[in-house]
Amino acid sequence: MPRGLLITEAVEILIASVHERHPKQTAMQVQYEVSALLRRHNSGLSPDWPGLNSVQKIMAVLRRKSKESRENPLDKPWSIGVSARHAIPPDAIPVILKVRALWEQADPVGQRPDPDSRPSIREAQWVSRLCHVIPDDVEALGQAASVYARVEDFSERLGHPVFDSTGLDHGLIRSSRPLPPDLRAAVEHVGLGIARPRDGGYRDALDRDEPAGQSGGLE
After folding, report:
1. 57 φ/ψ angles, rounded to the nearest 5 degrees
2. Residue 120 — φ and ψ, nearest 5°?
3. Sequence-ordered alpha helix ranges (H) in 24-110
């Protein structure tokens, strides 16, 4: 494996997702799981990549940011009353309510770990942005909005000044272009952590076979 292989934003987000899902794991355990997830989609990667030092640095950043994240108003539950304050247009409210109703139905069978089934304000923002892209499938819309919201949150906590969703946007395009392997691994893991119906907005993109040995980031 060449020295200095780029740690893409997608790999950072995968590390963040694994760490958040298993907060008691050591950096070595997180590195092992991240490497295994990446090698599922790129068999040419070394089991030692990403390096332990890189994983430790990212975990340290996330720990420092954890308190700020808990206090972020965008991660509070959404209600109609807060929509204007957070630039959620009125015409999106009926769709957000449909997403909320769907998630509330999932509660009795244990598909949502949080007893409050309301979308977060961040998720509601993404529902409003994506509802015209995914107009006829509330389940797919909710899944896609959750993935965007989760990845945006990780991107902010990792210190990226601008959330570039270019890579994620490919998952909404009905084309033969697959997601880059590292982004695919990150989206799959983030989707598992959301605990919503999983065959949503990225169903087609994740079902495509990418050429072996590729590498790529969020761009």
Report:
1. -65, -45
2. -70, 165
3. 27-39, 52-70, 93-106
Given a contact cutoff of 8 angstroms between Cβ atoms, the answer to whether 190 and 17 are in contact is yes
CA distance 150 to 199: 17
Spatial distance between the Cα atoms of 61 and 74, rounded to a whole number of angstroms: 20
Give the H/E segment covering residue 146.
helix 138-157
pTM for this prediction: 0.78
- 204's CB contacts (< 8 A; 6+ apart) are 171, 174
CA-CA-CA-CA torsion sign (99, 104, 109, 112)? positive
Report in angstroms the alpha-carbon separations of 219 from 30, 169, 176: 24, 10, 17
For the segment 180-203, what is each residue's pLDDT rounded down to a tens digit? 788 888 888 886 555 443 333 444
Q: Tokens 């694994």 map to which residue?
A: 18
Read off the tokens for 180.
């880059």
